[in-house]
Write a structure and sequence with these properties.
The chain is an alpha/beta fold and about 325 residues long. The chain contains eleven helices and 13 strands. The chain has helices at about 10-25, 60-70, 85-90, 90-110, 145-165, 190-195, 215-230, 245-255, 285-290, 300-310, 315-330, and strands at about 5, 30-35, 50-55, 75, 115-120, 170-175, 180, 205, 210-215, 215, 235-240, 245, 265-270. The protein binds nicotinamide-adenine-dinucleotide (NAD) and 2'deoxy-thymidine-5'-diphospho-alpha-D-glucose. 2'deoxy-thymidine-5'-diphospho-alpha-D-glucose (DAU) binds near residues 176, 212 and 247.
Length: about 325
């Protein structure tokens, strides 16, 4: 049994991880979350009080973080500003949480000798051409495009430096695009599903040729647990499930699953600096640590996700109007 501190555990992937840990281990979890617009306590409802504790606070609050880190065996660091479109509008919270927040955490784990797993993204590697046979590996040079991905890249580099210079016991994972329950309606898949549920046409940026490498959030969680338990200190592991799809295909699939015509969507203003393609080669994680994804069939995982949003309007409806008002201002 481990005592885990999970930062950002009321967000999309963090809350999925907390559910996964409760279901698959006997670890105890303390969630530290600031409950920004992206955090939602309802995502943690139903979890047992004797396994999961919640602390509302800022990961950049060094005093608070020091106290929490001192009382756990390991930290899994999800807390971040995570949405590219927001980072193009106002980068400042991205600098504060993603860089200063990670710094505060690193100083605390350094002081207490606590194990850290840092959650990052494939976006640190920039993007690939559509016809490039290569995929991202742990050796791909960093080349981030947006304020979001550059602050994630910066946080990864801080972790690497703290490992090398101070002997901090950390690992890093860089994962591809997640989908599943509890994802904020600002993100591509939930935005389109909830648009259709409201009788609004999905919104595709540009021509929809951009490719993302989709992985179910449960597979991300199982990979993180595997790295936490078996990963080599100082190493980076890429997490992906061979799920490349272009955005047009994903929108058409959502429309098909929801009984709408395949062309019932709008093309809207493209994202500035829009990365063309992400693709992950997760051979190292699979060969070295024996991890395998369980959601091989994207269409089945997507159908389950559509059902989840259909059944949980109470969870997503409070954020929908404000999100769409923001996009409307951007012409998106
Ligand atoms: P999210 O935006 O849904 O959740 C982020 C959570 O962090 C929220 O609960 C929010 O309240 C909390 N938070 C924000 N600032 C905080 C602060 N200063 N102190 C404490 N808590 C704070 O994000 P997500 O999609 O769940 O992403 C989680 C992590 O996974 C991020 O580090 C992100 O970079 C990484 N990641 C995401 C994806 C993806 O597809 N969504 C893929 C790879 C990696
Ligand atoms: O690759 C991992 C990253 O995946 C994570 O690091 C980020 O936190 C996460 O937000 C995600 O980033 P993306 O920018 O790829 O995700 P998003 O859901 O915003 O968009 C997915 C694709 O869909 C992207 O090409 C932009 C496009 N898009 C998005 C929205 C919101 C649309 O076409 N229409 C939309 O309405």
């Amino acid at each position: 049994m481990m005592r885990l501190l999970v930062t950002g555990g009321a967000g999309f992937i963090g809350s999925n991880f907390v559910h996964y840990v409760v279901d698959h281990t006997d670890h105890h979890v303390t969630v530290l979350d600031k409950l920004t617009y992206a955090g939602n306590l309802a995502s943690l409802e139903g979890l047992p009080d004797d396994r999961v504790a919640f602390v509302r606070g800022d990961v950049a609050d060094a005093t608070l973080v020091d106290g929490l880190v001192g009382s756990v065996d390991a930290v899994v660091h999800y807390a971040a500003e995570s949405h590219n479109d927001n980072s193009l509008h106002d980068p400042s919270p991205f600098l504060q949480t993603n860089i200063v927040g990670t710094f505060a955490l690193l100083e605390a784990v350094r002081k207490h000798g606590t194990r850290l797993h840092h959650i990052s993204t494939d976006e640190v590697y920039g993007d690939l051409e559509l016809d490039d046979p290569a995929r991202f590996t742990e050796d791909t040079p960093y080349n981030p495009s947006s304020p979001y991905s550059s602050t994630k890249a910066g946080s990864d580099l801080l972790v690497r430096a703290w490992v090398r210079s101070f002997g901090v016991a950390a690992t890093i994972s860089n994962c591809s695009n997640n989908y599943g329950p509890y994802q904020h309606v600002e993100k591509f898949i939930p935005r389109q599903i909830t648009n259709v549920l409201r009788g609004v046409r999905p919104k595709l940026y540009g021509e929809g040729r951009n490719v993302r490498d989709w992985i179910h959030a449960d597979d991300h969680s199982s990979a993180v647990l595997t790295i936490l338990e078996k990963g080599r200190i100082g190493e980076t592991y890429l997490i992906g499930a061979d799920g490349e799809k272009d955005n047009k295909t994903v929108v058409e699939l959502i429309l098909h699953l929801m009984g709408r015509p395949a062309d019932d969507y709008d093309h809207v203003t493209d994202r500035a600096g829009h990365d063309l393609r992400y693709a992950i080669d997760s051979t190292k994680l699979r060969d070295e640590l024996g991890w395998l994804p369980r959601y091989g069939d994207f269409e089945r995982g997507l159908a389950a996700t559509v059902d989840w949003y259909r059944e949980h309007e109470d969870w997503w409806a409070p954020a929908k109007d404000a999100t769409e008002a923001f996009y409307a201002e951007l012409g998106q």
